[in-house]
Amino acid sequence: MSQAGGKGGEEMTGFKIGNIEHFYDKIGVAVVELMGTVVLGDQIRVIGSNEFSQKITSIQIEHEQVPEAKKGRKVGLKLDRPVKKGDEIFKEG
User: Fold this and answer.
1) What domains does the chain contain, in order, with CATH numbers?
2) Considering the entire predicted model, what is its pTM?
3) Which of 17, 20, 40, 52 could cysteine-pair with 87, CB 3.0–4.6 Å?
4) Rg of the chain in Å (alpha carbons)
5) Which residues contact 79 (CB under 8 A, 6 or more apart)?
6) For the range 9-14, what are the long-range contacts, defined as Cβ-Cβ under 8 Å and sequence gap of 24 or more?
7) Which stretches of the chain are DSSP H helices?
8) What is the largest CA-CA distance in the chain?
9) How far apart, in whole angstroms, are the C-alpha atoms of residue 93 and residue 82?
10) Bridge pairing between strands 43-47 and 88-91
């Protein structure tokens, strides 16, 4: 497991599901190549330029809404806040 900085390493971030490859700021969508499976409703944490947690409310593959996506797929994830290329995404829990 990876650890976030902060409170003496007490805060666990879960397991890494990918890195931000691009962010479309006008629509709030990040492009991510997945290192693990994600499902609508999963709780994720973004670590990097803007650190926050949120629930996944939208997953798209080639502009089609899907309920889940598996490792190796390139997906669009709707995010609540802006992010930058290279930021990391972890699945919490």
Assistant:
1) 15-91 (2.40.30.10)
2) 0.84
3) 20
4) 12
5) 23, 28, 29, 30, 46, 54
6) 13/45, 13/47, 13/90, 13/92, 14/45, 14/90, 14/91, 14/92, 14/93
7) none
8) 42
9) 23
10) antiparallel
Report the amino acid identity of residue 53: S
* Other CB atoms within 10 A of residue 31 CB: 17
Burial status of residue 26 (CB atoms within 10 A of its CB: 0-12, 13-18, 19 or more): exposed
- Read off the tokens for 18: 């990918």
Q: pLDDT, tens digit, for every residue of 20-60?
A: 999 999 999 999 999 999 999 999 999 999 999 999 999 99
Report CA-CA distances (Å) from 53 to 44, 62, 93: 6, 25, 12
